[in-house]
Fold this sequence. Notes:
The structure holds 2 protein chains of 2 kinds.
Chain A: H1 6-34, H2 42-63, E1 66-69, E2 73-78, E3 84-89, E4 93-100, H3 102-107, E5 109-116, E6 124-130, H4 131-152, H5 161-164, E7 212-217, H6 220-229, H7 234-245, H8 247-258, H9 272-302, E8 306-310, E9 313-318, E10 323-329, E11 333-340, H10 342-346, E12 349-356, E13 367-375, H11 376-387, H12 399-426, H13 441-451, E14 454-457, E15 461-466, E16 471-477, E17 483-489, H14 490-495, E18 497-503, E19 516-521, H15 522-545
Antiparallel strand pairs in A: 1-2, 2-3, 4-5, 4-10, 5-6, 7-8, 8-9, 9-10, 11-12, 11-16, 12-13, 14-15, 15-16, 17-18, 18-19
Chain B: E1 2-3, H1 8-33, H2 39-63, E2 65-68, E3 72-77, E4 81-88, E5 92-98, H3 101-106, E6 109-115, E7 122-128, H4 130-146
Antiparallel strand pairs in B: 1-2, 2-3, 3-4, 5-6, 6-7
Amino acid sequence: MNRLHPLSAVSYAVRYGFLWLSLSLFLVGALASISELLSGRWVPVAAVGGLAFGIGYGIAYYYRFGYRITDDTFDVASGVVARRSREIPYGRIQNVDIRQGVFQRLVGLAVVSIETAGGQSTEAALNFVSEAEATRLQNEIRRRTADGKRKAHSDDERDDSSVTDQEFIGPLPASEFDSDTPSSEHAGIGPGPGAGDRIHDRSPTEFEEPERKRLFDLEARELLLYSFTSFRPAAVAAVLFIFFFMTDTIIEYLLAIAQPLGGPADIETGTAGSYGILTIVSLVNGIIVTYLLSVAYAFGTYYGFQLGRIDDDFVYERGLLQRYSGSIPTGKVQSVTVTANPAQRLIGYAGLWVETAGYGPSSDSGSQSAVPLAERGRVYGFTERLTGVETPRFERPPPVARRRYLVRYSLVAAGLVAVAVGVTTVTILERWYLAGVVFAAVPVAAHLRYVNLGHYVGEEHLVVRRGFWKRRTTIIPYYRLQTANTRRSIFQRRLGIASVVVDTASSQSFSDAAPTIYDIELETAREVHATSRRRLQSALSERSQDDDLSLDVDFTDPDSSGP
Amino acid sequence: MESLHPRIRLLWIVQGVIYAVILGLVLLAVDRWALNVPTVALAGVVFGVFVLGGLYAVRLYQVWKFELQSDALYLERGVITFVETAVPFVRVQHVDTQFGPVERLLGLSSVVVYTAGSRNADVRIPGLPPERARDLQDTLRELAVESEADDAV
């Protein structure tokens, strides 16, 4: 069994020391307040005792934690008193992520997380190992996973030369493919530091260094565009959080800003007009700060983004302060999604996301960015080469769907007007009918929702497009289908339309529901439903008959990329 | 297409009664501590929910159908939103039979089929006689094993 890095002992000791310190203080305090048995005199004793126990526990935890790479499984044994030993078969590993915070980067440590499809959390987290060990683990696990796969169909198989002269994303200049970047750039974490042509300089290691291919590097321009065109709802929460803790300072600041524009001198004295100005100024301020925070966050998260490929795995690296590095086996990819918000569509850019059944390091969903943002044409081309999907010819829902949205949004608008009426009855505001202006947005909203809907039934893939604010085009291979559902509400039944929900094993967050084809004619819906089922069966039988066909998604075959 | 056991209607009616009682209690609490709710309105609402629950139960029984097709378990159900679901046998992870206290009282069982999907990951067929439920569980298990796919997640 291997131990973690010795510094982890310090980290665990500090962590558990603080935990037990506060726990014992809390307990003594609580007991002293409800009974006479304990008095305040015991507090120092409890503090010292709790701290000592916590530190001891943390150190014991370090010594009782072990991990091991075996031929078939990755083993983790942990627990001071109650022991748990866990064996994770390589074939079940979804992705291996390496994470480094600012402090960890300074001292050269990293957190390795291993994800499988089961369970609600990370299956194995190693806090902390050294950077070199992290990289070694990632490579070892990947190599053994690949070995296991090769063993599975030993009468191998395709000429792998097709992989070497594979086409990469878009018309990148040749220099981008040569790994002539100084290795210091890779000195941190991440797979295959000695990738590409540097391989020859390296001393022979215990196994052949994997060859890393660059698929995509996020350029400075694209990073900036991405930061400025994307918005993270988390920024709103952050601003509210800051406001909650520094309410007084912030209110003073807002007053100072609004005063020259006609705001009130202080929060108690002011006229309706000056309060109005204060509100508007504060709102504008809040929006700007939230937006800037979001920009900074996106910039920090995707700084230095690189996507590469080693054998059958995608590998990526990103992050300014906190570095992430992960690998995704191509065979574990459930679906891919092209996203673009209105601003990105306007400048002709889009992003590409890859969904697996595991859980990502930064979000709760298994969605990983493959290309945060690039020109639309490049992203489309890359996606088509990646999945082998033909260029989709989208079909729209029947026009009756648009009428449905018109009715739906009218109801929403009516609700808003009703709220406005309610507000006028309890406040000094009077002209509730001004709220009627929202009705002007109804036809626009209905139309925008309608034109962004589309689906395409391909030879091997189903393509579903939906959403205006965040338009997502999801490409689902039929053989990833878990269940197919045709849904019809009472309103849809009246109009003779239906929605088809295509469920895959990708773990999505609640906000991104399973890919749904909304409001198509019932006949079409039934057809899509039946086709998906049929093509799942034919894909499965093809796979079992044809041993030459890899069981995994072939993301690289340049022949299927078309013109 | 196979229907559920007719006794399932009783179960759903009991559920409707429970909802009506809960609603009645909430209204009583409102009446006691907040607004004054006329007794007639209270009784009317509770009775209305009770009747609706009964109608819902009857209608749900009418539309609930399932079938073992060549490649998948196929289900149809839903009063407000009518849903047709196909669960390919190859995607079945495991199959349970379950019964709750009321189901046990009525002598009924449910079969729950689990997939690796993210939504509708468990599909429940309620209201089966216990022997039919076990039978269905065995059949589904055999079909799932037969069509075992290599590309499990």
